[in-house]
Amino acid sequence: GAAGKSDKSNEMTMNFLVPTEDSADDGTLIFPIGTFFRDKKQRSFSTEDAKLMVANFKNRVLGENRLPPVNREHKREAGKIGNIVDLWVAEDGVRGTIEGDMTGFDYISPEVRWSWDHPHETGKDEKPRTYRNVLMGAGATNYPFFLSQMQLNNEAGLLWTGSDWESVDSARDSDGGSMPSGGLDTNSHNRQEGTMELEELQTQLDEYTAKLETAGTELTASNEKLVAAGVDLVAANARVETLEGMIAAAKIAAEVSDSASDEDPDEELPDEFSDKVKEMEEDFTAKLAAITEDREKFSELYEKERQTRRLSEFSDKAKTFSFATEEEEFAQDLMLIEDADPELYGRWVTRLDAIAAQVESGELFAQNTVAGGDSDHTDPFEREVERVRVERFGTDSYETGYTQAMTIVQRDSPDLARRYAAK
Asked: How many Å apart are CA 207 and CA 201, to the nearest integer?
């Protein structure tokens, strides 16, 4: 009976309204409205869900002439024993008419796809169209998931309160429109919770969609940069292909002209063709002349730059020789010697390198200074070099400082260097 159902309302796992014998709803209950648990997850089936399931059936989303089949104990391989030929929304859920031989089975168990992609229909985004709450079929069974309310014989209905079954008539109030605690009010609350859960899932989906759109924008920008980078390459290739095409066209024209002359030297080509060949030849000749001129200019610039680089290299070589006070003239002389006699130039450079090595080590020009001799007996050039070394390079090694100081004195006091070298 109804006793104790309020105390155990929190233990409810289902809340389904099953019509009684005097209800206007006939047929077989296919899917009840309410909240249930499956695989440890809660799911709610509302009136709106029921309307959508019936609409899918009426619109024949499974096929124009296809009805949801009824099989044995959900074993499709065993074949069907009937069909669901009609559906409608009732107070307790989706009800329908089943035709077929249900001998040996007392209950019906629905087979539903909560989300189903149609294999032949596409939406606006060119993706498979998705339908919700699609009744795919049912199984005639003796072990119904929704218990005895799914009876095929549609006996008088009861309301499951969480602890017992209660007649629907006794659960109605005086107006016959509402249910007591544990009845439709609780069911409505459960539906609201289900709606809130769906809204939360939709919010998460919107966030994920926004992230995908951001990633897509970044990918588009990257692709645009890649395309822009490829434009220059395409343009360069086009210029090469244009020149190659001109050359090929000229060759073809020449071959055609030669062939025509070989076949019949007295036969003249048509004026239109001859004019075209002549025009192509003149155009190609002009472009070839321009290219040749550019090549000559480039060759001239290249040779000038090469000579400049050679002079720079020889100037660097001249700087290594401390007694070469006129570095630019000395570098030009070295260039002339190399051009005239490379072998002689090699011998001279070898000797000059040996002299430069002695200068750097101070063995030739710094003997008195290294020995600590009387400054009155040293040459003015040596005294000046020593002064610059001490004042400007005192913290460096002696050989490094002496070499740097000698270079500076040669540059700033060329007369001292000449007189010193003449001794």
From this structure: 10
Rounded CA-CA distance 278/269 in Å is 12
CB 101 within 8 A of CB 79: no
Amino acid identity, residue 183? G
3-state helix, strand, coil split of the chain in percent (to 5) is 55, 20, 25
Q: Per-residue pLDDT tens for 32-75?
A: 999 988 888 888 999 999 999 999 999 999 998 899 999 999 99
Q: How far apart are CA 85 and CA 70, in angstroms?
A: 10
Quote the tokens at residue 18: 């099953």
Helix and strand numbers (H, E) in the chain are: 10, 10
Q: Which amino acid is at 364?
A: L
Q: Are residues 50 and 31 in contact, defined by beta-carbon separation less than 8 angstroms?
A: yes
Quote the crossing angle between the two packed helices 327-340 and 271-319, to the nearest 10°. Answer: 120
Crossing angle (nearest 10°) for helices 327-340 and 342-361 = 140
For 162, residues 6+ apart whose C-beta sits below 8 A from its C-beta are 5, 8, 9, 11, 12, 13, 15, 182
- The contacts of residue 297 (CB under 8 Å, 6+ apart) are none
Sign of CA dihedral 253, 259, 260, 265: positive
- Name which of 82, 89, 16, 24 is nearest 57 in CA terms: 89
pLDDT tens column, 310-364: 777 777 766 666 455 567 787 888 888 888 888 888 887 787 777 766 655 554 5
For the beta carbon of residue 409, count every other beta carbon within 10 angstroms.
23
β-strand partners of 37: 42
Instruction: Give the integer Cα–Cα distance in Å for 93 and 52.
Output: 12
Q: What are phi and psi of 181, to 5 degrees?
A: -55, 130
The DSSP bridge pattern shows strands 128-141 and 69-72 to be: parallel
